[in-house]
Amino acid sequence: MFSRLASRQLAASRAASRTLASPSASWNRGMKVLAILYRGGEAAKQEPRLLGTVENELGLRSWLESQGHEFIVSDDKEGPNSVLSQHIKDAEVVITTPFHPGYLTKDLIDTAKNLKVCVTAGVGSDHVDLNAAVDRKIQVLEVTGSNVTSVAEHVVMTILLLVRNFVPAHEMIERGDWMVSDIARNAFDLEGKVVGTIGAGRIGYRVLERLMPFDTKEHLYYDYAALPQEAEKKVRARRVEDLKEMVSQCDVVTVNAPLHEGTKGLVNADLLKHFKKGAWLVNTARGAICDKDAVAAALKSGQLTGYGGDVWNVQPAPKDHVWRTMKNSLGAGNGMVPHYSGTTLDAQARYAAGTRSILENYFKGQAQNPANIIVGVGKYESKAYGQR
Ligand code: NAD
């Protein structure tokens, strides 16, 4: 794929060669590695490729133990008596996954006297207080790129299922009913629509690439980093520097930026007023980028026709979370699922292998792949988490 990512990675690589030899790990020293993963239950026993689960432990246990390291794995992450709170006190490495995030707040990081590295098994490290990690010289590494295609496919699917009014059509069939007009009254083609992405990095760009065969009218993007002209041309993308102006032109808006100080609550009641009336909004980036209640209200009022995605402001989402059941005035427009777009079995194989490779580098004191470094020793290495 042509991308500005290559030049970004080159710049990062130069910086990395100056700063990123692993700071203090010594080969073969027994250390405590703590992993917070999601519980896989029966499915994980039956399907060993569910690597990102408590049961299958990213495939790391025998390898880590053969080197004398202690490996604690749990899904217990809430409250002062949780496995996370107890074991983080002396763990040197913490692995967590965005699908069941161990929230590493500043308070928790303050108790982690021995912590040197946080690894995200996946992409998106907002569950770590990154500023606190910078201050404490804790590295934050993720398996960059490991699931970006998985997510881009999910975004395209969700755009289609909302625009074409798929979910209520399927539910009608399961109920035993058949009333074509009830579905068709709110079903459209994607062809000829304007699609805009907030964030045009690895996922946002791949979404636009995958939309090309649908003969959409135009692709817009809002990102503080401009794409190279050739990359823009390839996906017929036009950069709009004002977010309100961009959303006012879009039939479909998709959110593909990381969660940080500059994106938390970015899609709020004020911004939603600027959306084209009846637009569709898809967010697989992070739930907290969209204001929960403002989105539900916009769907109810008809300002949005549909909202879909897989990310929630708190995960697991509480049973009464309004996004589970919110609907538009026609009783449709909800494309929400649990957080799984980036944890397909294909993605799990990639992020499990990537996690192992990050650990190997750390244990051996070798440089990390620069693209994987969100926070290096004492400073941000990635530009994706806000302009600093
Ligand atoms: P990336 O770093 O390649 O791209 C992110 C882009 O967002 C960058 O171009 C950056 O400049 C831009 N950006 C940052 N702040 C912005 C802002 N305020 N406004 C507009 N653009 C902004 O990251 P990626 O691999 O494309 O992933 C993006 C995010 O998607 C991740 O951080 C993660 O939160 C989420 N994600 C979700 C899943 C899932 O399973 N649902 C899986 C992977 C990633």
From TrEMBL:
<feature type="binding site">
    <location>
        <position position="123"/>
    </location>
    <ligand>
        <name>substrate</name>
    </ligand>
</feature>
<feature type="binding site">
    <location>
        <position position="223"/>
    </location>
    <ligand>
        <name>NAD(+)</name>
    </ligand>
</feature>
<feature type="binding site">
    <location>
        <position position="310"/>
    </location>
    <ligand>
        <name>NAD(+)</name>
    </ligand>
</feature>
<dbReference type="GO" id="GO:0005829">
    <property type="term" value="C:cytosol"/>
</dbReference>
<dbReference type="GO" id="GO:0008863">
    <property type="term" value="F:formate dehydrogenase (NAD+) activity"/>
</dbReference>
<comment type="similarity">
    <text>Belongs to the D-isomer specific 2-hydroxyacid dehydrogenase family. FDH subfamily.</text>
</comment>
<dbReference type="Pfam" id="PF02826">
    <property type="entry name" value="2-Hacid_dh_C"/>
</dbReference>
<dbReference type="InterPro" id="IPR033689">
    <property type="entry name" value="FDH_NAD-dep"/>
</dbReference>
<dbReference type="InterPro" id="IPR006139">
    <property type="entry name" value="D-isomer_2_OHA_DH_cat_dom"/>
</dbReference>
<feature type="domain" description="D-isomer specific 2-hydroxyacid dehydrogenase catalytic">
    <location>
        <begin position="64"/>
        <end position="368"/>
    </location>
</feature>
<dbReference type="GO" id="GO:0051287">
    <property type="term" value="F:NAD binding"/>
</dbReference>
<comment type="function">
    <text>Catalyzes the NAD(+)-dependent oxidation of formate to carbon dioxide. Formate oxidation is the final step in the methanol oxidation pathway in methylotrophic microorganisms. Has a role in the detoxification of exogenous formate in non-methylotrophic organisms.</text>
</comment>
<comment type="subunit">
    <text>Homodimer.</text>
</comment>
<keyword id="KW-0560">Oxidoreductase</keyword>
<feature type="binding site">
    <location>
        <begin position="339"/>
        <end position="342"/>
    </location>
    <ligand>
        <name>NAD(+)</name>
    </ligand>
</feature>
<protein>
    <recommendedName>
        <fullName>Formate dehydrogenase</fullName>
        <ecNumber>1.17.1.9</ecNumber>
    </recommendedName>
</protein>
<feature type="site" description="Important for catalytic activity">
    <location>
        <position position="339"/>
    </location>
</feature>
<keyword id="KW-0963">Cytoplasm</keyword>
<feature type="site" description="Important for catalytic activity">
    <location>
        <position position="286"/>
    </location>
</feature>
<keyword id="KW-0520">NAD</keyword>
<dbReference type="GO" id="GO:0042183">
    <property type="term" value="P:formate catabolic process"/>
</dbReference>
<feature type="domain" description="D-isomer specific 2-hydroxyacid dehydrogenase NAD-binding">
    <location>
        <begin position="157"/>
        <end position="329"/>
    </location>
</feature>
<dbReference type="Pfam" id="PF00389">
    <property type="entry name" value="2-Hacid_dh"/>
</dbReference>
<dbReference type="InterPro" id="IPR036291">
    <property type="entry name" value="NAD(P)-bd_dom_sf"/>
</dbReference>
<dbReference type="GO" id="GO:0016616">
    <property type="term" value="F:oxidoreductase activity, acting on the CH-OH group of donors, NAD or NADP as acceptor"/>
</dbReference>
<feature type="binding site">
    <location>
        <position position="147"/>
    </location>
    <ligand>
        <name>substrate</name>
    </ligand>
</feature>
<dbReference type="InterPro" id="IPR006140">
    <property type="entry name" value="D-isomer_DH_NAD-bd"/>
</dbReference>
<feature type="binding site">
    <location>
        <begin position="258"/>
        <end position="262"/>
    </location>
    <ligand>
        <name>NAD(+)</name>
    </ligand>
</feature>
<feature type="binding site">
    <location>
        <position position="284"/>
    </location>
    <ligand>
        <name>NAD(+)</name>
    </ligand>
</feature>
<dbReference type="InterPro" id="IPR029753">
    <property type="entry name" value="D-isomer_DH_CS"/>
</dbReference>
<feature type="binding site">
    <location>
        <begin position="202"/>
        <end position="203"/>
    </location>
    <ligand>
        <name>NAD(+)</name>
    </ligand>
</feature>
